[in-house]
Amino acid sequence: MAEHARALIKHNNLDHIIEVICAKIEDIPHSQIGPESIDIMVSEPLGTYLLNERMLETYVIARDKFLKKDGMMFPKSAHLCLVPFEDKEIYEEQCGKVEFWSTQNFHGFDMSCLYEKALDEKLSQPILDTYDPSKK
């Protein structure tokens, strides 16, 4: 993406104004970009449900590390809307995915002490799917 952005910038004669840096924000030293030296930050910081993948955290780190006090961020806000629901089939499917950890004799090895931890981990992960409203 950085390569395409550079091509667009050069093609539009903006390469003397805009610099594209292809790197993780945590890896960019202050010697390359000074503190509070960026006017505008454009990013796609939205991980799953805004929080998963820790992309939002990285965006905030970049803001605090490099953005000028009057700088702009795009996007500058996001909205998360949740609706609680229960689906027994999904729950049972997720439980089944960690059933291995309830094994008490896996080649003579009892794995069951890790079942609850595996289940907690599995049930704490977001499930991305579509919902058919006509489904009863």
Structure notes:
The protein is an alpha+beta fold and 136 residues long. The protein has two domains: 2-74, Vaccinia Virus protein VP39 (Rossmann fold); 88-124, no CATH class. It has four helices and two strands. It has a two-stranded parallel ribbon. The longest helix has 12 residues, at 55-66. The radius of gyration is 23 Å and the shape is elongated.
Here the CATH topology of the largest domain equals Rossmann fold
Helix segment tally: 4
Average per-residue pLDDT, rounded, comes to 88
Rounded to the nearest angstrom, the distance between the terminal CA atoms is: 43 Å
- Based on Cα principal axes, name the global outline: elongated
Strand order across the biggest sheet? 1-2
**Which CATH architecture of the largest domain?**
3-Layer(aba) Sandwich
What keywords describe this structure?
136 residues, Rossmann fold, 4 helices, 2 strands
Summarize the structure.
By secondary structure, the protein is an alpha+beta fold. The protein has four helices and two strands, in the order H-E-H-E-H-H. The longest helix is centred in the middle third of the chain and has 12 residues, at 55-66.
